[in-house]
Backbone:
């Protein structure tokens, strides 16, 4: 057993425990639904994606390694990756309309930081994000929480795509340096 | 992409970060996903970035999810699906192949052979045949007839559950692969596609689907 109830369930699911599969759905589906609605912006697609994601959880649970990370982090990574794959496969400009994305971005900045402040263990993450320039921290969070591509971020911040990518890469290096201390 | 002032050795870790962040354009994202499956150092770099950024997950509000478990369980564990799954359109021959597989199962005499055939992967007009057989907790997929992949190509095995996208079960580098039987349930479809050496670069079948079959009972 670990200190991580989702990790414990994943280990049981890897051993084909169907009851653990039901338990993990109860314990995590509303969080993953939140991830999918946020990134996809469409309930019907989010529900379709949710089925796909739990199918993958069953089929891939044996690849989960509790030494390498928390169970919920692994589940959210599957959900985000699947949602972002769907977004990137959409025809260009078929995403949410801009107004909605801006609202998400603003909302994401506030709620992500509020969430960070709420968790004592995450104080360092707050500090590290605070060390970034405000618009770059917002860009990292907008990418992470809303699935914004370099193209959309570049439009949003009024810079060329390559500039946006350079900004974000430098910000990621700074974050890594700060978070790994 | 190479960013000025960023040393070459950082490129791989930055790519891992960009993959986790999700900002890469489709083609680069697919290439990174392929590398993730094959390159354990890159996979570890991705896992480390997932942990570095996990505090951002608190920015996702929870949203009530409908109870989709019955549908998911039906898809995974073999309760008959109410609608026709998309793969039925791929190969009309699959059902016939499965019926053949089932007939083989029913009429197979008790012999010392430890594997019990479950189904045959085949396609109309193709000599290629793979047998799917069970022994205890092991499921074996073995080529019975037809040629192996030519040089530079490989046969890749896929599992298709309901309407879900095919999931790769790996490459058939020799003449057979053995997998844990517990992965499989009744109603699941197996398919073999022809891929470049090293397997599908996208994570989905890219070459022609050569043969398919349905696991009717397990």
Residues:
């Amino acid at each position: 057993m670990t200190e991580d109830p989702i990790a414990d369930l994943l280990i049981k699911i890897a051993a084909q425990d169907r009851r653990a599969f039901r338990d993990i759905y109860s314990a995590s589906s509303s969080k993953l639904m939140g991830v999918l609605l946020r990134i996809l912006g469409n309930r019907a697609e989010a529900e379709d994606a949710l089925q796909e994601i739990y199918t993958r959880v069953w089929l891939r649970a044996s690849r989960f390694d509790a030494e390498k990370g928390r169970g919920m982090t692994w589940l959210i990574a599957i959900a985000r990756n699947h949602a972002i794959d769907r977004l990137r496969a959409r025809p260009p400009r078929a995403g949410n309309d801009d107004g909605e994305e801006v609202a998400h971005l603003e909302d994401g900045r506030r709620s992500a930081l509020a969430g960070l402040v709420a968790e004592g263990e995450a104080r360092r993450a707050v500090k590290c994000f605070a060390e970034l320039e405000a618009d770059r921290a917002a860009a990292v969070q907008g990418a992470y929480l809303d699935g914004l591509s370099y193209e959309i971020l570049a439009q949003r911040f009024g810079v060329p795509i390559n500039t946006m990518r350079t900004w974000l890469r430098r910000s990621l290096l700074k974050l890594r340096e700060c978070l790994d201390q | 992409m190479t960013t000025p002032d960023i040393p070459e050795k950082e490129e791989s870790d930055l790519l891992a970060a960009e993959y986790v962040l999700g900002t890469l354009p489709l083609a680069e994202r697919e290439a990174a996903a392929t590398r993730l499956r094959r390159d354990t150092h890159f996979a570890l770099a991705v896992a480390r970035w997932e942990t570095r950024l996990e505090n951002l997950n608190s920015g996702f509000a929870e949203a009530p999810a409908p109870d989709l478990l019955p549908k998911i369980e039906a898809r995974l564990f073999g309760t008959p699906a109410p609608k026709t799954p998309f793969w039925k359109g791929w190969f009309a021959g699959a059902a016939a192949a499965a019926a053949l597989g089932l007939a083989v199962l029913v009429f197979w005499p008790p012999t010392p052979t430890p594997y019990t055939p479950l189904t045959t992967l085949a396609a109309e007009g193709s000599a290629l045949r793979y047998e799917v057989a069970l022994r205890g907790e092991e499921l074996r997929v073995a080529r019975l007839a037809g040629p192996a992949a030519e040089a530079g190509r490989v046969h890749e095995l896929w599992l298709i559950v309901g309407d879900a996208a095919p999931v790769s079960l790996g490459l058939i580098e020799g003449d057979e692969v053995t997998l844990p039987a517990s992965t499989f349930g009744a109603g699941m479809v197996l398919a073999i596609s022809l891929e470049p050496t090293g397997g599908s670069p996208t994570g989905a079948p890219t070459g022609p689907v050569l043969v398919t079959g349905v696991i009717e009972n397990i």
